[in-house]
């Protein structure tokens, strides 16, 4: 780096590839200084020389700027400053052979940082992950995995399922798949050391709902054991996981159907959650294609023309969500919701070798949004 630093206690051969940072380092520091970031610029200059304390101080300064107000008001240069500081921190950990710490810093940059250094971050993740696998003798992502399944493969008993689903459920079709994403060894080998944002709590409408940052392996363990520190379900929801972890992105392809009519793909998101995870009734701004990769999920869809009868929240942040709890509809408060027509199904894994994407009915307007629910 003007960026490619090494720590005095590390291996001088362990260096992260940062060509964009090398080229943009001085101009980026000048832009940061122009926004009052003189102290940050001094710390960043020391970080290049391998000063871990300075690198962490620069990262903390940028972090404070990211939280100085509403996210949309944060200047883009501070997001790039945060990415740069994370790269410096990651480089120092990497040179010292501390691969987990290096990946954690890189993931925070991918989650919270700007776009300028995105390629440097992804290339660095690939290198750190490769070295980490050599050190731990993890299974390679391309290997055959026959270990414990994340979700047990058991036949579905519709009569039992109907006992816990909302009334009048499963009047529509059922859709049916199997993938290596149900193998814990594979997921841990590819992404176990990566840091991801998760939600903890029944759903985002509950008062005790919160967000956490955990490693993917810890998150998978919570799903497998059905235990979290708060005993509430942990959910990785609507996160651009494939932008962050490119190795998982390589496992999927976008169907041509997404581009019918000249539309553009707006986002590619993943949902991972344990049994019992519930997303409240809500309206999305885009069309969706929803695929079930592992396990099963009950889906219920109402026509967009019934929006008022589903009593949306009046608050701006929740105006796309319904106040109606389908598991326990308050007939007095929400009388119109009782007899509304809907379509529903149990979305399942498809059978065969490759992932199968199932188009579902959608509301009018917008373009296709490719989603994955786990």
Automatic annotation (TrEMBL):
Q: What does UniProt give as GO cellular component?
A: nucleus
Extract the SUPFAM superfamilies matched here.
Clavaminate synthase-like
Report whether Protein biosynthesis shows up as a keyword of the record.
no
Spell out the InterPro entries in the cross-references: ARM_KDM8_N, Cupin_8, JmjC_dom
Q: Which UniProt keywords apply?
A: Dioxygenase, Iron, Metal-binding, Nucleus, Oxidoreductase
Where can this protein be found? Nucleus
Q: Which residues form the JmjC domain?
A: 228-374
GO MF assignments: dioxygenase activity; metal ion binding
Q: Which cofactor does this sequence's record say it needs? A: Fe(2+)
Where is this chain primarily localised? Answer: nucleus
What family does this chain come from, according to its entry?
A: Belongs to the JARID1 histone demethylase family.
Name listed for the protein in its UniProt record:
Lysine-specific demethylase JMJ30
Name the source organism: Cardamine amara subsp. amara
């Amino acid at each position: 780096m003007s960026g490619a630093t090494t720590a005095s206690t590390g291996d001088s051969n362990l260096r992260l590839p940062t060509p964009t940072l090398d080229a943009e380092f001085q101009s980026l520091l000048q832009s940061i200084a122009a926004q009052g970031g003189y102290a940050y610029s001094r710390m960043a200059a020391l970080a290049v020389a391998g000063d871990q304390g300075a690198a962490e101080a620069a990262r903390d300064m940028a972090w404070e700027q990211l939280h100085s107000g509403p996210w949309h008001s944060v200047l883009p240069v501070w997001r790039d400053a945060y990415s740069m500081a994370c790269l410096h921190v990651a480089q120092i950990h990497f040179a010292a052979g501390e691969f987990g710490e290096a990946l954690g810093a890189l993931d925070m940059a991918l989650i919270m940082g700007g776009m300028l250094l995105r390629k440097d971050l992804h290339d660095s993740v690939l290198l750190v992950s490769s070295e980490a696998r050599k050190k731990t003798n993890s299974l390679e992502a391309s290997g055959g995995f026959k270990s414990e399944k994340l979700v047990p493969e058991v036949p579905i008993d519709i009569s039992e399922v109907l006992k816990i689903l909302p009334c009048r459920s499963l009047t529509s079709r059922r859709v049916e798949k199997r993938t290596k994403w149900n193998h814990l060894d594979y997921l841990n080998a590819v992404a176990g050391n990566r840091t991801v944002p998760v939600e903890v709590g029944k759903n985002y409408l509950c008062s005790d709902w919160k967000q956490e940052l955990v490693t993917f392996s810890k998150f998978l363990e919570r799903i497998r054991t059905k235990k979290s520190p708060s005993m509430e379900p942990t959910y990785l929801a609507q996160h651009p996981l494939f932008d962050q972890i490119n190795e998982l992105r390589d496992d999927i392809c976008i169907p041509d159907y997404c581009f019918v009519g000249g539309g553009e793909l707006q986002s590619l998101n993943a949902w991972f959650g344990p049994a019992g995870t519930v997303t409240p009734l809500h309206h999305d701004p885009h069309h969706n294609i929803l695929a079930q990769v592992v396990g099963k999920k009950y889906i219920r869809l109402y026509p967009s023309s019934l929006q008022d009868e589903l009593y949306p929240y009046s608050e701006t942040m929740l105006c796309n969500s319904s106040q109606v709890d389908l598991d326990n509809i308050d007939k007095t408060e929400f009388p119109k919701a009782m007899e509304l027509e809907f379509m529903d199904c149990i979305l399942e894994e498809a059978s065969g070798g490759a992932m199968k994407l199932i188009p579902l009915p959608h509301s009018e307007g917008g373009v296709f949004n490719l989603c994955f629910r786990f």
